[in-house]
Amino acid sequence: MKVLVIALSAPPKNSPESVQTGRYLQHLAKSMEVTLLTTKIYGGWEPADQSLEKYLQSVFRVVSVRLPHPKLISLVRRIWPSLVFPDEGFFFLLQQWWIERKIGHRPDLIISRSAPFSSAIMARRMSSKWGMPWIMHLSDPWAGNPYEQSNGSTHKRAAIAEHDCMRVASAITVTSKKTVAYYQTKYPLWREKFHFLPNVFDDQSQTGGVLEFDKPMKFVFTGRLYGDRNLFLVIEAIEEACRKHPVCSTAEFLFAGFFDDRNAQRIQNTPAKNIKWLGPLSSELANKLQHEAAVLISIDGLADNPMFDLYFPSKLLDYFLVQRPIIAITNTTSTTYHEVEGKFGRCFNSRNQQELPDYIAHLVEQYRSKNKLAFKVSNEFGSYSSRVQSEVLIALAKKIVAHG
User: Fold this and answer.
1) Do the beta carbons of residue 28 and residue 390 sit within 8 Å?
2) pLDDT, one tens digit for every residue, the chain (404 residues)
3) What is the DSSP letter of 352?
4) Residues 6 or more apart in contact with residue 275 via CB below 8 angstroms
């Protein structure tokens, strides 16, 4: 079977979406002839990461499209904002004729991964033009995405584009069961199209080893913080814990990843000397840092918006694999809460944030006491294996192609 995978965010770009694309690609390409259509690397929040090239080893062919430099796109956004739609990949859509010639052959199936949502729109165009079945994957909600800055006009255009793609796609996969239910309610006529296909961990990655209590204790966050996803609550809790409980000053609180200005300034201005921001790391170094942790930190948006509940952060899968307790900043109605609370750690939000400083101190004291039981978490996460879920996707692909 010949498959065209359209993913603007793909290895060796270093981003959460790119890593997930790669983890599925490595298995798809072993059982199908896969052509990857993506874009060239320009740095910014998606720098090149050679450690991710391993995911492309079995891919038959990679077609990379050149886009304008991000600085030029930012200029266009300021001068002519309506042109930048559905996202920064808009120029990718203007090159459809050249892309079709470059690909050369008609595949048996198209699979798109979004965000960026330009991947889905290009797949929709090719699917309609070539008469090919198409599986659309949405890692995040599209219309109404709380992390996308949009006005009324842009939201309306996104809603129209989403509806059009939902109509044309042969099947739609999403990363959380809450998202499946959300879209089945929103589009009841197409409810059978929606399938659960979660973020996954890499089967080749090692699980966390034995926790070594003779080393300085580390609390670790790896990821991206911007907009309503911010570190304010957890930083305030750490600062209070260090003031109330001097023992907390023996621990290190390490944050790594791309942060927007508000988050970067908050962590740089903290008076606590044991709180550090390491900046962006490669996927390999981020994984190494996670394995050095005694406790891992996850942060979701806490704004009063039910759309936040749909997200299943991809870093949770890496955290599960490390087998360390997680402190998750998230609402009680979220997918993160459902996955983490009582199984892989504890969750905190505005309702119980006053408990977090004492909980941090409790963990530090248990670490100093070398209490292994205090750091034991569930090991039931095998269903999120990249191999297992790739088999689900391959079975769906064969079914879609068989039915034309």
Assistant:
1) yes
2) 999 999 999 999 999 999 999 999 999 999 999 999 999 888 777 888 888 999 999 999 999 998 877 777 777 778 777 766 777 877 888 888 889 888 888 899 999 998 889 999 999 999 999 999 999 999 989 988 877 766 667 778 889 999 999 999 999 999 999 999 999 999 999 999 999 999 999 988 877 778 889 899 999 999 999 888 899 999 999 999 999 999 999 999 999 999 999 999 999 999 999 999 999 998 889 999 999 999 999 999 888 888 888 989 899 999 999 999 999 999 999 999 999 999 999 999 989 999 999 999 999 999 999 999 999 999 989 999 999 999 999 999 999 998 86
3) T
4) 235, 238, 239, 253, 255, 267
Q: Is residue 346 part of a domain?
A: yes
Number of domains in the chain: 2
Q: How far apart are CA 19 and CA 11, in angstroms?
A: 7
Cβ proximity of 239 and 271 under 8 Å: yes
Do 308 and 373 lie in one domain? The reply is yes
Q: Which of 124, 334, 378, 344 is nearest to 229 (CA)?
A: 334
Same domain, 224 and 286: yes
Structure tokens at 400: 């879609």
281 neighbors 256 (Cβ within 8 angstroms): yes
Q: 147 and 67, same structural domain?
A: yes
**Whole-number Å distance between alpha carbons of 381 and 82:** 43
Name residue 229's beta-bridge partners: 226
Position 109 in a domain: yes
Q: What is the CATH number of the domain that holds 249?
A: 3.40.50.2000
Q: Name, in order, each residue with C-beta under 8 angstroms of 304's C-beta and a sequence gap of 6 or more.
A: none
Report helix angle 386-402 to 16-31, nearest 10: 60
- The pTM for the full model equals 0.90
